[in-house]
Structures are given as structure tokens and as C-alpha cells.
Amino acid sequence: MTEHAKFCVTADVFVIRNGKLLLGKRKNTFGEGFWGLPGGHLEFKETFAQGAARELQEETGMSARDFQFIVLYNNNSREEHYIHVGMLALDPEGEPRVCEPDKCEEWRWFDLTSMPRNEILWVHLPQIDAFLAQQNFIDHS
Is residue 91 part of a domain? Predict the structure, then answer.
């Protein structure tokens, strides 16, 4: 019998207000110094919406009425294998605050038409590009 490889699944949250996307500056973690989407590993038995809601609350203190699937990114181009599920926060509520100061320096809104591409976390940039191009699937190997 073939042994199945292990991979991780993340729920990455797109919070958009007035044509701007919320990104956090990462610290003391993977991609330190880069801007990234709120999100993280899906927990056992969580739905994508539940994971997105939990991660959004844990990292920013914000909530949303619901979440809509927007992009699936199969990222197996490095040693690790990740499935990133991009979820759009519908009717986000509250203002972002740094709720995990050991992992994030600040939250900032970036205009969707002029983001700092060279400063965005390389695993989130393909998802953002796909969202802007209205594509919902990326398969990298």
C-alpha cells in the first residue's frame, strides 16, 4: 500500500473595504517582514468559513457576517505542501488591531490597484493575483 504524503491546509482571509485589502506585517514567523493576509492552519473538523472566522478574530479582532470561497492554491513548489483556501470576508465588522503582537507588527489597508508587490508574502501574492484576475484555482508544482 502507498503511504500518503502529509500536507497542510490554510484558510486565508481577504478583508476588503473601500477598494482596499487588509494586510499584516509579519514578525517572528514564516515570512517575517513581509505583508500577508490574515489566516492560518485549518483545525481538525473545521469548515473553511469557521477557520476563516477564527483566524480573522484571533489575528485582527474583526468579524464578518459570512465568508465566501474565492481561490484555491495548491502550493507544492517547495519542500512543504500547502493547500491555501482564500475566503472573502462578507460585511467585515470592526477595525483591525494587532491581537498577536508576537506574530504581527501592524495591519494596514492597501489599495487593490497599487499594492507593494515586492513586499507581499510569496505564498499570498498568487492568491491575490488570482483574485484580481477573477481566477479561482492555482496549481503550482
Answer: yes
Burial of 98 (C-beta count, 10 Å sphere; 0-12/13-18/19+) = middle
**Domain containing 82: what range?**
8-140
Backbone angles phi, psi at 125, to 5 degrees: -60, -45
3, part of any domain: no
> Considering the domain boundaries, does residue 67 fall inside one?
yes
Residue 64 and residue 137: Cα distance in Å, rounded?
24
pTM: 0.94
CA distances to 1, 71, 128 from 11, rounded to whole Å, are 31, 10, 14
Show pLDDT as tens, one digit a residue, over the chain (141 residues): 566 678 899 999 999 999 999 999 999 998 999 999 999 999 999 999 999 999 999 999 999 999 999 999 999 877 788 999 999 999 999 999 999 999 999 999 999 999 999 999 999 999 999 999 999 999 975
